[in-house]
Amino acid sequence: MNAARLAGSLLAAGLAASSAAAVAQQPPSGAKTVLISGSSTVYPFSVAAIEAYKSKAPRGLNFKATAIGTSAGFRDFCSGKLSIAAASRPINSAELKRCAAADVRFIELPVAFDAITVVVNPSNSFAKQISTAQLRTLWNKQAQGKIQRWSQVNPAWPNTAIKLCGPGQDSGTYDTFNKAINGNTSDSRQDYTASEDDNVLVACVAKNPGALGYFGYDYYQANRNRLRALAVQGTTGTVLPSVESVQASRYLPLSRPLFFYVNDQALKSNPAIRAMVTNTLDRGVQIAEKAGVIPLKDSTYRLVTNKLYRNVLGSAFAGQLPIGLTVGQVLERSFDEHKKPQFR
Fold this sequence. Notes:
By secondary structure, this protein is of the alpha/beta class.
């Protein structure tokens, strides 16, 4: 079923439930904090979503966002410690098993898109674009201790040292980049400045004239005066990351969906969590734009809201990373209500 037909069939069911009604209900008595934790890439979106809901939140209930990396967020989520996991990749097969073993059921909600952005220091006058093959030469495991100069990546570039800055192994960006570029989530050199905090990576590139790094588009957007993005020669040509190139499915293979994973029991036991998530989807475009990530279309956010109200449990990705799929393909798969039982 194509995305338009899928949207029509789901939206025909109507959005009868009202977020305002959910807001009116009060959470259990006593001060509480609901944590949205995980991806550093999704963190600005989480903060903006909390800010957008603040005036509607019941008294005595606070929402807080932290950035610890997608994998670390899923560890907490699948052990029942977390109501909402922010993720820059779909849940993987091992995490699905951990959630199932702990009887943690969830709804997987796409909230935005991202372009993994390859950046250099603004003083770099020679590198304007880079191919996926050159990125593989630079970042694969075999490059460790060997590929250390710009000229080794491109003979036309100077024979000067290259400083690498990238996500740590708990980051969903690390997983997605290495799957897209090196073919495996764990095929990465380790002799680089690594952090799950993207602000550390921004500073690493901004302070080193010979640096190259990669991280989420929102952190590039917030630091455009300190960084320069490289166009990436991928499956659709040589393309700069942008809202337009991602929405048009041209920035491949380094575009990806971003998610909220919401604990089903938390949704049922705390109406304010449902109200907050619904408010986030209702205002998704504005929240995404404020956070600097790439929004879905308004009609798609309504589709995601319908998925929430229909209580469609489980992951639509069967534990796999959707590398190289178009925006439409990712969304169509995400809204599939006929998944195999083991992934529900």
